[in-house]
What we know:
10 helices; elongated; alpha/beta; 2 domains; eight-stranded mixed sheet; binds zinc ion
Amino acid sequence: xxNYFIILASGQSKRFNSKxxxxxxxYKNKALFEHSLEKALISKLFKKIILVVNDKKQIKxxxxxxxKVIKGGKERSDSSLLALKYIxxxxxxxxxxxxxxxxxxxxRLLHKLIVSLKRNKASIPVISSKDSIKYKxxxxxxxxxxxxxxxxxTPQAFKFNDxxxxxxxxKIKVQDEATLFIENNLKVKFIKGxxxxxxxxxKEDVSETKKYYGIGFDIHRLVKNKKLYLGGIxxxxxxxxxxxxxxxxxxxxxxxGLLGAMRKKDIGTFFPDNKSKFKDIRSPKLLKPIxxxxxxxxxxINNLDIxxxxxxxxxxxxxxxxxxxxxxxxxxxxxxxxLKGKTVEKLGLIGKEKAIACEVICSISQ
Length: 366
Ligand code: ZN
């Protein structure tokens, strides 16, 4: 194992449009460059990992001994050459060069590249373009044949001595090391790249979907001579839930959960119980306008988890029916709704079958 890994994290991020350099922004709860570093460490494939940066102060984590930080140059090719010069004294067999702006490669790809170096001097991952590409020569447009064009990725893997020789003698500034081989008519082995191994280039590339959570709780007293409604359906039972509306604790909790997640107060704000217009109203009618607010604000539900707390009736018997009803009312896949029945060991009002309570937690995204 005489492999070395170079991470280039000294770019100027000209296209990124942010005050902070791209390689140090937070991405999936870590600085961007840390993703590549972590994978190289976990793979245990490398004797040394060289991290090339322009500003060492930006590194906020403690680095293990096998990681060496060096200062980069003006252009990408300068930084790469500085790193190659630094590792020369260790007499490396193989070297992989990687852009820190690609945090999503797999450790499997590292293995594939190193295996490929047994038979090749240069191995680089490529994918085909999803978009069709045009190019212009003297104001005339041409189509690039998609079947014979490739998008190149990093890490790119090389026999150290061959790459070093080319890098020392390079006259032009190259975008990547594969270009050195191609410009000198040397063979480059293309291996299958990864669609997820995309380069973070623009600010939009790192915008992550935010999740919001809301919690809902409701309890109603059970009274004789009333129908019992739970989750929008009628359940055969000796009593029903007392309330200004039909007392459907499941739907009321869901409404509060959704409003909570949208940060829009609570059910009482929307449906005050001193308004005669809501007297004895069926709860699905209360849910509908809330779903409309959700849609109008471009929210969608990720999932719901519901605890129905009662001694009787037994939830297991009606679970499927309730889930089906909720799925319909919320326009949400049944698989994204979970309903649990909880008893309270005959304790208190709920245990004596005098009340039913419900709590819901829901997650939404915008
Ligand atoms: Zn209620």
